[in-house]
Design a protein that fits this description.
The complex is a heterodimer of chains A (375) and B (355).
Chain A (H helix, E strand, L loop, with lengths): L1 H6 L2 E5 L4 E5 L4 E5 L11 E6 L6 E6 L3 E6 L4 E7 L8 E7 L2 E6 L3 E6 L5 E5 L4 E6 L6 E6 L2 E7 L8 E2 L16 E6 L6 E5 L3 E5 L10 E4 L5 E5 L6 E6 L4 E5 L5 E5 L6 E6 L5 E6 L3 E6 L5 E6 L4 E6 L14 H37 L2 H8 L1
Helix pairs in contact in A: 2-3
Chain B lengths: L1 H13 L5 H19 L9 H4 L14 H33 L28 H8 L4 H4 L7 E5 L5 H13 L3 E3 L7 H10 L4 E8 L2 E9 L5 E10 L17 E5 L4 H11 L12 E8 L2 E11 L5 E19 L8 E5 L2 H4 L9
Parallel strand pairs in B: 1-2, 1-3, 6-7
Antiparallel strand pairs in B: 3-4, 4-5, 5-9, 7-8, 8-9, 9-10
The chains are: A mainly beta (375), B alpha/beta (355).
């Protein structure tokens, strides 16, 4: 079990309560669960990394329990009761240093401290669809839902939100535009927040400006947008809707850059890789798909037999993760190949050094040298 | 030369309206003429097939005269047919000669044979899929906790054919009730159905006086399937049909639903009918899936002896094609779709099927 969980680079939670780990390099998927005690009320609603080293996965289930799964050991290490099903499903799970933040649909946001049973409770309003944590400022969370506008909370001062979004102006029929925030994303290196709504709108808010209305609004498709993710490259956002349409939108003008094809069912979980231009999507059609963001092609497609609710990508390299594990036979063969590779490598590096020297010269001298280097 | 040419053209003109045989007789006269024009000194034989030598890049489509081109083409086809027959005879001879050692007969390729393997094909021993199916929205029916009760309605203001189709469906499906739509919104109809213990809602959509769509909604919170309906044949249009279907509960046959999606749809159809069929009635409803089209037939059978069965088709017949499967009750705008048919992505291969 431990070796299986160590090679998995993508973790998924399903409606049947099974945690699935997928290794793209070995092209295998593993189920981590106890088959005897499966039940529908263990359906996984939210998933989060338990620590920055990504050695623990936290799963929030419908029955109000949060389980901890260790990727090194390959077993569930802890279970914690964090609320009961009457308050609704989990809509957000996050971890700050030594405490866990949970949010449910009824709006009860709780901060659970390690070791102690006391909690800090905040009521963020009814009908919450999503709660997300700011990855750079981990004590700040944003919440939003149906008829519940985007609010950013600072957990050190939990009585009032530090930012509440204002609804846009009335539309061309002079009617109030309904609010339904489905997913939230924090744009890195800035204060801005992107949201996608159930009325197929993507909005960008900037709390640092006095304007509480969205800075940018874009529309995509005709169906509710259910998931959103921000890739490593700035200026774009990937959204998915209930019809299985995944699109990349440009955040400077609000235009659709391109669509990612292949999905047949509603997108439930979407995550971009922290460094590589890849996006993993899972949904109701029981498939995990990994697309490349540069050419919008499908890289991997894995059939996982249950409907999938959430996906978590580990930040390690998806392709080279197999280098760590190797059998004896493979090692022997690899060594021989490696020698050959190193032989060829040396000559290349010499040339590169030459080129580097040339480049330095080129900066000093004129255009002719530049042409030589370009070859 | 001129005289011969004029005779040929005259003969062609006279025999324009006549049969192929006459044209063929005309042919040997024509060909030598052409020959003499084109290739000098080449021997002309009476047999046009083997004697004619055309330049190697010649194709039938280069002849501008339609009649001559047609005749050439027919010759070409006949030659091909002869060759094929000869090949067949030879193979049969070889097969006879070998006797028992003959290699097995080759199976012809069909689209069903060449179907691309679908990775979602359900393995009967799969525990996870078994658990998923055991606890899904149909579990109440399959655990015998509820009995099916079906409400059949149409789109607003249906015309005669659709109305008759709905009535006939109601005779085929037990515990089915037909109600007039009256322009009511489905989202308001559904809570009322649930309160009156209905388990299914069928809406037959009509376009230009012909039913063309079917929405099948499993009621408490179940999936909604939207189908394209085609080839609807009412009872009076059926040839050699039997009498009216009786009130007995029919047996249900579900053929060829192999993939995970196919399983879901198969269960959707199975849950329309009550559990215990009354074999006294000798009626059977068949949902046969082939190439993603679902064919519905309703028969009455009778066993003449142990090996022979006679069947009589009663009841309406129609063909369905799945357009989308939505999780939850009917909500086309805000509902989440489990499967949507996307023509350009899914119909690109002729050998890929999804059900």
């Amino acid at each position: 079990m431990a070796d299986k969980s160590q090679i998995c680079s993508i973790w998924l939670g399903s409606e049947t309560g099974i945690l699935k780990g997928v290794s793209l390099t070995k092209k295998q998927a593993f189920n981590f669960c106890e088959m005897s005690c499966l039940s529908r009320d263990q359906e996984v609603c939210v998933m989060a990394w338990g620590d920055p080293h990504e050695s623990e996965v936290l799963l929030g289930s419908v029955n109000g329990t949060v389980k901890t799964f260790s990727t090194d050991k390959g077993i569930f290490t802890a279970t914690r009761e964090c609320g009961d099903p009457s308050q609704g499903r989990f809509t957000g799970l996050a971890v700050t240093d030594s405490s866990m933040i949970t949010c449910v649909e009824s709006g009860l946001l709780k901060v659970w401290k390690e070791g102690s049973t006391e909690t800090v409770e905040v009521n963020v309003g009814n009908g919450i669809c999503r709660m997300r944590q700011n990855p750079s400022q981990r004590h700040r969370v944003a919440t939003g839902g149906k008829e519940n506008p985007l609010k950013v909370w600072d957990l050190e001062r939990p009585d009032k939100p530090i930012f509440t979004a204002k609804n846009v102006a009335h539309d061309w029929l002079d009617m109030r535009v309904p609010v339904w925030v489905r997913d939230i994303g924090f744009i890195p290196d800035s204060d801005k927040i992107v949201t996608c709504t159930g009325h197929h709108q993507v909005r960008v808010y900037d709390p640092s400006t006095p304007q509480r209305r969205p800075v940018l609004e874009a529309q995509f498709g005709e169906y509710p947008l259910t998931a959103l993710s921000l890739p490593a490259s700035q200026g774009t956002v990937v959204v998915g809707n209930t019809h299985g349409e995944l699109a990349m939108l440009d955040l400077r003008k609000g235009l659709v850059r391109g669509c990612l094809k292949g999905l047949a069912g509603a997108v439930r979980g979407l995550q971009c890789h922290p460094s590589l231009p890849l996006v993993a999507s899972c949904g109701l059609d029981r498939f995990l798909r990994v697309h490349s963001l540069e050419d919008r092609s499908l890289q991997h497609k894995v059939y996982l037999k249950s409907r999938l609710n959430c996906v978590l990508l580990s930040s390690r390299e998806l392709e080279s993760s197999s280098a760590d594990l190797s059998g004896d036979v493979e090692e022997v063969k690899a060594e021989e190949d490696v020698d050959e590779v190193w032989d060829t490598m040396e000559t290349v590096t010499e040339k590169a050094k030459k080129r580097a020297v040339q480049k330095d010269e080129a900066t000093v001298t004129g255009k002719k040298k530049r042409k030589l280097v370009k070859k | 030369m001129d005289s011969t040419e004029s005779t040929t053209s005259e003969s062609v003109a006279k025999k324009k309206g006549k049969t192929k045989k006459l044209k063929r007789n005309v042919k040997p006269v024509k060909d030598p003429v052409q020959e003499m024009d084109q290739a000098e000194g080449e021997a002309t034989e009476t047999k046009p097939v083997s004697g004619v030598c055309f330049p190697p890049t010649f194709s039938v489509s280069e002849i501008k005269n339609k009649q001559r081109r047609h005749a050439m083409f027919l010759k070409f086809k006949e030659e091909k047919r002869k060759q094929k027959l000869e090949l067949k005879k030879k193979k049969k001879k070889e097969r006879k000669a070998l006797g028992d050692e003959a290699p097995p007969k080759e199976v012809p390729k069909t689209i069903e044979n060449q179907r691309i393997y679908d990775e979602t094909t359900v393995n009967p021993e799969d525990e996870e899929v078994a658990f998923d199916e055991g606890t899904d929205e149909f579990s109440a029916y399959f655990n015998r906790l509820t009995n099916p009760k079906v409400l059949i309605t149409t789109s607003d203001r249906p015309r005669g054919r659709t109305v008759r189709f709905c009535e006939q469906m109601a005779t085929v499906i037990p515990h089915a009730h037909v109600y007039y739509r009256r322009g009511l919104a489905l989202k308001r109809v559904i809570p009322q159905c649930i309160s009156r213990d209905f388990t299914y809602l069928i809406v037959v959509n009509e376009d230009r006086k012909v039913p063309n769509g079917l929405v099948l909604c499993h009621l408490p919170d179940g999936p909604t399937a939207h189908f394209k309906l085609s080839s609807v044949r009412l009872r009076k249009e059926m040839k050699r049909r039997g009498k009216e279907p009786t009130e007995h509960v029919p047996e249900v046959i579900l053929n060829n639903f192999t993939t995970r999606l196919g399983h879901s749809i198969g269960r959707l159809f199975a849950a329309l009918f009550p559990h215990d069929p009354q074999f006294v009635g000798r009626q059977v409803a068949t949902f046969h899936n082939q190439r993603d089209f679902i064919f519905f037939r309703f028969h009455r059978y009778i066993f003449k002896n142990e090996k022979k069965v006679g069947i009589q088709e009663l009841g309406p017949r129609f063909t369905l094609k799945l357009r989308s499967l939505q999780k939850g009750t009917f909500d086309s705008k805000f509902g989440e779709y489990e499967w949507v048919h996307k023509r350009h992505e899914m119909d690109s291969s002729r050998r890929k099927f999804h059900l």
